Every structure is written in C-alpha cells, then in structure tokens.
Amino acid sequence: MWRGMRQLLTTRTAQQTRCLSTPAIVANMPPCDFVPAKYTGMSNEQMSKIRAENINPACGLFYKKPVYLQQGHMQYLYDTDGNRYLDLIAGIATVIAGHCHPKVNKVVKRQMDRLWHTSNIYYHPAMHEYAEKLVAKFPDPLKVVFFTNSGSEANDLGLFMARLYTGCMDTMVLRGGYHGGSPTTMGMTALGSWYYNYPSATSIHKIRNADPYGGMWGGKACRDSLVQPDRDCSCQPGKCEASERYLEEVNDVLTFCSPENKMGLFAHESIQGNSGAVQFPKGFIKEAYAAVRAKGGVCLADEVQTGFGRTGEHYWGFQGTDAVPDIVSMAKGIGNGFPLAAVVTTKEIASVMRRSRHFNTFGGNPLASTVGSAVLDVIDEEKLQENAQEVGSFILLELAKLRDEFEIVGDVRGKGLMLGLQLVADKKTRKALPTEDCLDIFEDLKDMRVLTALGGHRTNVLRVKPPMCITKADGEYAVACFKKAFQNHLDRKASRL
Prior knowledge:
Layout: H1 2-11, H2 44-54, E1 69-73, E2 76-79, E3 84-87, H3 90-93, H4 102-112, H5 125-135, E4 144-148, H6 151-166, E5 171-174, H7 185-188, E6 204-207, H8 241-256, E7 265-269, H9 284-294, E8 298-302, E9 327-330, E10 341-345, H10 347-350, H11 366-381, H12 384-405, E11 409-415, E12 418-426, E13 431-432, H13 435-447, E14 450-451, E15 453-455, E16 461-464, H14 472-496
Parallel strand pairs: 3-14, 5-6, 5-7, 7-8, 8-9
Antiparallel strand pairs: 1-2, 2-3, 4-10, 9-10, 11-12, 12-13, 12-16, 15-16
Helix pairs in contact: 4-11, 5-11, 8-9, 12-14, 13-14
C-alpha cells in the first residue's frame, strides 16, 4: 500500500503530473484562539535535503507538496508558515487527548524534574499507580499488565505468551489485519504491501477476512454500525448469515491445519485500522473465540487503534463484540503520542513468563507511566469517549450522505472516531478508484487544511481517526471539505473527456 504510494509519487515527472491548483477553502475552519509560536528553526529546504540524504527511505512521504509541521494544539496542527490544519488522523489514531494537552504536559514536566528513568526492577510509584489504574479499565480476569514501547512489541509479546501457554505454535489471523512491522509481527500482519522478502509467518494461518462490504458475504444487516453496507443480504434479526459463512473457514483451519487437534492463538483487531475501519459481521468474533477455545487456544484482541474510547460506545473495541479476550495489546492512544504500549492478560497466562527472564529497558519508565496515567484521567474528566460517540456518529451520518451523492464513495463505515470512506470506480462491482485519483483527493484535502490518511489493500480508503477532542463544528468543516474534494475529482474527470 504505502510502498506503492511512494513509488507513484516519486516516479511522476513534471510532464506526467497535471498541476493541481489549491482548492478554495469551502467553509471557514472553526475559530481557535491559540496562536502558534513564530517559527525560527531549520528551513523547509534544509529539512527536505536531510530527509533525502540522511533519513532511512522507509520514512516515506505521501503528499506531492509536503507539509512541514512545527507545532500542535489539541485537534489542530500548524506548519512552519503558521497555517492551521484540522488533524483527522492524529498520528494514525495516536494523539487521542489532543496535541500538547495542557494537563498531560504539566504532569510530564513535573515528573521530569523528579525522575526520568529507572528500570522496572525497582519500585517507583509512577509505574505502580498507572498499572492499577489501567487494569481497572478491564473486566475480570484481565488484570496483569506488562509495559512495552510500541504496538509491534506488544503484539510480539502477546504471541509469545500465547504460544508458551498453549504449547502450540499455530496462530490464526484475518487477512487485512495489521499487527506490526517487526520481523515476528510482520508474520501476523496480512497486508501484502507491508511485507518484505523475509521469513516471518511460521505456523501463522491467514484466513479470509470477514468483511461485510468487500468480502464474499455480507450486506445491509451485518455490521454493528449506524451505517450499513449498500449490499443486499438474506440475514434475519439475530442471525447473520455472513457471520456463519466466514466462520466456516475458521472451522476449516481448525480441522485441517491445526496439529494434534490444537490451536495456539487467534489474533484480530477489534476494527481493522490499516485496512480502513473494516468491521466484522455481528457475532463473528464471539463465535470464533468459542471455536478456538474449544481447541485449547487463546484469543488476542489488538486494541492498538480502537482502544481508550475511540469507538465511542465502549472503552475497548472488543466490548462491542460481546466477547472477552484472553490477551489485549494496546499502544498509540495509550500515550497520546509518547512511546508507550502494553499487554494485559490473565494471571494464569502471565505466569509463563516466570520460566525464564524477560526484560524491557523502558517498559514502565517513570515518564511513560506518568503520561499514560494522565491520559486516562483526561479521557474520563473531559468525557472524550462520550465525545467520540457523539461527534463521530454525527460525522459518520454526514459522510453517509456523501455516499448517496457521489458514485465514487462506495462505503462509509466505523464507530465513534474510527471511520473510513472507501473510494470506488464503480459502486456495483466495488472496483477500487485508481490510486492516482485517490492521491489527488488526498492532496486536495491537505490543501484545504484537512489532514487524513489513505488505507486499504488498494490504497482507496480515506481514514478518519482524529484526536477525540474534535468538535461538531470541526466535523462540519471536514465533511464540507470532503464534498469539495469529491467534486474536484468529478471536475477533473470531466475535463479529461
């Protein structure tokens, strides 16, 4: 996905690329009293030179005209020229409380004057206070936490514990899932654009994705969302036929691919993030858990993008499935941008780590723990979960109107502030809109000061995962910009005829 985008952006020549004029701002961005500092640092040209010569090329850019950011405030970002942007992607669903949130900043500065770092072999209050506060957010028996620094590390550890606990290497994941980019978690990830030619998928079964819009089965009654796929289905109330059909493959893998009638782990995102807010049919996760546990396996819910109230309805995405996992991985929003992650599991599963030594130098670091604790407080005190439900539902329903208006919007989906718009060339066939057209829309939105991201296997899903402090007025502005960007696409298409 991103690899293809980078290649397309870097291979366009001046003759191949049609110059796009900056779209007019379609409405006034909501007012903000914050005034960014005047930028006096390195020039944009010097940053570009260093990026080209000294930064690993894996750190790609996805705009034809780059954005040079220098400051953030809550749901807004500011570039080196002082232009304000509405951040609809939040560092890929990471800045959950808002950029440079004053309460988080305050407690971090206080902790910095006391103790920056000591390893977790010592007792220090920040880690223990945070651990107690975090596990209180989970239902029994999920009450033991191990702190790491990234989602890839968290999923790596979750997989490791599951295999030790069950004694079975075999692992089942869904195609379209993203669980990390480390050599091990790359094997759990099932998006080809994130692979390298490197052995990583030992004993990992990547089964058909249970996608009610893009998959073989699913339709208007299958998804736990205010907006359903525009596909007919024969599901009845309380009985999802699509779920039953996708479960057939789960059971096939358990029957034909698991050794000695055993399965080690079933891992899934509660809503698939990099695939573009893909949701599963009602009942699928709960029944998959039951089937895997009947084979002695355990279940891991990847809450890296869905956790901490982002789905609005619940604090954790898995709570919308009526199923409780055995292991939960989390990162991104947990630290509001600070490198922090965690794995929460049961005492029984966690006990396998006593068999040898396992250590993470920065896991439970005093600064990280202080940040994490402050983020939990802000989510509760400022009712960010409730705001995600209210504002996210508003945005979702407004985006659904654009689906009805524009042929290129094939699907609008998600919950809370975990949303996706799938762009298509044809609604009936669901064929993806060409990548170059998606990139032009993506660029238009940026030029209208709206930052989002592209996802999906074919890079044709606009991802909406803003800081959870976003307002309804911000949502109205964003929807107006989406509408203008889609109209711009139609105008460009007409001009080529």
